[in-house]
Specification:
- Helices cover 77% and strands 0% of the residues.
- By secondary structure, the chain is mainly alpha-helical.
- It folds into 2 domains: 2-61; 63-94.
- Helix 2 (11-26) packs antiparallel against helix 3.
- The chain is rod-shaped, with a radius of gyration of 27 Å.
Amino acid sequence: MARLSEGEDTVLERLGALDGCVRDLLRMDASLTNLSAQIDQAADILQDATRALSRYQDRLDMDGEELAEVEERLDVLNRVIHKYAKLGSGSWPR
């Protein structure tokens, strides 16, 4: 995702440079109006996609404390499973 919008030489920067070139050419050739509009639309779509990917990545990132809590709960569940598996000869009580 960094190549889209973070750091140097990103896709958004390149698209911005292209937009600048097309706008310069547009002053000499009005037939490039549609191309300029398409580049603007592409930039908007790419920015929306970047924001959506960023939100998705934020949801995936767990903080260390939350991860430790989940692991602790899993350990408790595994101990309970092993305890009752031994008592019931490997089968669950009915």
